[in-house]
Every structure is written in structure tokens, then in C-alpha cells.
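Async update (no meeting this week)

Hi team, since we skipped the sync, here's where things stand on the single-chain job. The sequence we agreed to prioritize is pasted below, unchanged from the tracker. I ran it this morning and attached the output directly underneath so nobody has to dig for it. Comments welcome in thread, and please keep replies under the output.
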Amino acid sequence: MSEIYKPRPYQAFATEKIINNNAIALMLDMGMGKTVSTLTAINELKFNYWQIDKVLVIAPLRVAKMTWSDEVKQWQHLHNLDVSVVCGDLKHRIDALHARADIYTINRENVPWLVKFLGPKWYFDMVIIDESSSFKNHRSQRFKALRRIRPFINRIVELTGTPAPNGLMDLWSQIYLLDGGKRLGRTITQYRKLYFYPGQSSGHIVFNYKPKENAEQEIYNKISDICVSLKSEDYLKLPDVIYNKVYVELPERILKQYQEFEKELVLDMTDNTITASSAAVLTGKLLQFASGAIYDEDKKITFIHDCKLDALEELQEINSEKNIMVMYWYKHDAVRILNRFPKAKILKSIQDLRAWNEGKIKMALLHPASAGHGLNLQYGGNIIVWFSITWNLELYQQANKRLHRPGQKNKVIIHHLIAKNTEDERVMRALTNKASGQNDMLEAVKAKILKYKKEGGYDG
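Output:
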């Protein structure tokens, strides 16, 4: 049964901004109805203003498959819009492109293919980038492809709740797609020279950049005319969120193993340059150990302890009448959870997501990368358990917002299973402080190296 759309004032404002601007970024908090606001603008531009013909929506895979077509079905005023989903194998994508529709949704991984396939025959006069932060990497193939075709796009809209999850450097490529470099510079090099100075480096290699004094305000002033930022707390009355830390005590024998493991990994890195990649490998291994299992060099699982599984079982017993969504980071976490809780279900398909929202799944397992953007899961429950914690602040925030959004009727409780005296505690502090995961990770590894070097009796 479709609903009558009664836009909130900020939604009407967002729709008006899209209609009146050929290039605009809507930086709306998660759960504020970016999709329906954008679809309403598309409907107006196509059928009342006659300014657009075919619209391309670039989105995360599940959002491209499900969210936009579901929103069209949900609202009465959008029923004259036809959506074609350009996902799947090559034949399905080509058939979907040839189908008669007003809106074509495609997952972001297929953007390079689409640009190459259409070439000079590009016919989308309006492009929507749903979660534009996925285009923050100026080296990515998806950014380069869209940059190449940008002159043929008459209207472009970027939607995001987290435009700069890792800092101001994330903004350049997103703003470039809007204005071709007019505001922040035509190249990333120019942008860096204007607003940043080199941070950590080794020879000619610069690992990160730090913003100059007042850079943040200067950047925001430059882009304020093409960016609209709206915060949910200013406009929406949502239930409270309770963040809870559930500390898990490792047996003394296991904790000693962890400490030896940490020391060996750190000392193995002391002769190498510490980069984000090697820091991620180190902390990833330690986080795996803290959760109870680890991959060996042959990708086989070595089981270590069940402490977090026991804690999860206690939480389930306490909340036996409620549904629980469990976030996991490593595949072996899901394997072990399913072994302990055979009735648990990994949310993979559209059918799974709908079953959760209908209250049919008591324990749902979800990877944050799959839950990151656009999924409405607030109807199935109000409890999240982070079995293994991620450094990725953007995915962490986005995943939590799957339940804390309009339509949620209960307080959202977010539990974090934290193994005491392990890397879990450091990651939790970084998330609490809203720190950049990569920078915090690098600093953590450097601190560990210094610690073990001093314990070894030298400061080299």
C-alpha cells in the first residue's frame, strides 16, 4: 500500500535545491529521507519542468538493487516513475540499459564499465551519486571514469551523510565532480598546496597531510554555495541511542598468548617502513585474535577462544524476547557465530532484509560494508551487537544508522564486545573520539614499536 508523501520542511528545502541547481551536494544525516527528496525533484524536473529525460543513480550494490525502486513504490506521487536496475551479469546489465525507464540504478563498481560501454553515446542527462564519499579516492577507477564523462552530464547531485569520514582530503574529488575544480583546484596537488602541509613522510613519499590553520573554514566557505548540510538532531525527533561497552575478560593463559603474539608481530615490523597497509595488517591480526580466531598464512582458521561467543550468548538470553543484529568484521566471526547459534541468519539477499524488517529473524548477522548505506532496517529490531570492531568510522556510523532512523519506535541499544587489554580498547577509543582510523592506526603501531624496542633495551 503506497503512502501519501508529506515532506518535512527540510525535505522540501532539499528538493527545491536540487531543482534550482545543476550541481549540488546534499550532506544530510543518515535517515533524513535523502532518497524521497531526490526522487521528488526528479519527478518535478521530468514531468513538470521537462528539463531531464534519463537519470542515472550510482549507489552501493544493495541500494541500487532495492532502495530506489522500493521508494518509488512506497509513495503515491512517484508512481509514474519507472526504475531499471542495471546490476548483475553483462547480459542483464545491457538488457536493463535498453529497457524503457526514467531512472537507471547501477552499483558503483560498474561505473567504469558503463562509461566504456556507452562512450560518446552517453545519454544520461542527470546523475545522482548516492553516497558520494565512495568517490573520495581520486585514484579510483570509478572517479576517473565519471570525471571523463562529466562534461556530458547536465545535472549532478551528490548525496551523503559522511562527506569526509577520514578528513578534509576526502572532499576534493567529490567537489571536483560537481564543479570541475573551480572551487578547490583542478588537481589534488593544487588542493594539497593550498590547504595542507606534509605530515608523516619517508624520503619523497608522504604518507599523510595535515590541514593548515583555518583550512577547514576556508574550504567550507568555498563550497558553501553548492553544498547543503543538514543535521538530523536539528530536525528529527528520534529515540535515544545507548552505547554500551561489554568488557570480555580473556583467561590469563589466552591473554599471555595475545601479548606474545602482539610482541612478535611488532618486532617483525621494526625494520620496515610503517605504512597504512602494514599497520592495518598488524592491527587486523590483533583484532582477529581478540575476537577468538585468526587466519594463518594459508587462509585457514585457527580457533583460539570462545569468550566473545559466550558474551553474545549472555546478551541473547537477556534479550530473549527481542531481535538482535550482530555486526561482524571477519568471515571466521560469522562462521563461529553460526556454529554457536544455528538459527542465526546472515543478511545477504533482498528477501533476507525484508524478513528482518518483518521481525522473522531473531539474530541477524551483517557485515558493516554491506550495511553501510541506504538500507532501512529499523523495523526489525533496536539492538546492535558489535562482535568485532572496525577502525572504519564511516562504516561504523552508517551501520548503526540502519536501526536509528525514522520509523524506529524504541531506544536503540548498541553493545560493543571489547576484549580487555587488547586492540579492541584502542579501536573503541578511536571511534568514541571520532578519530581518523588510518592516522590513529599508524600512531598505535608506532607506539607499540617504541614500547617493545625499549623493552628490548635499545631506542634505535
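Quick observations from my side:
The longest strand covers residues 241-248.
Residues 9-235 form a domain with the Rossmann fold fold (CATH 3.40.50.10810).
Reply here if anything looks off.
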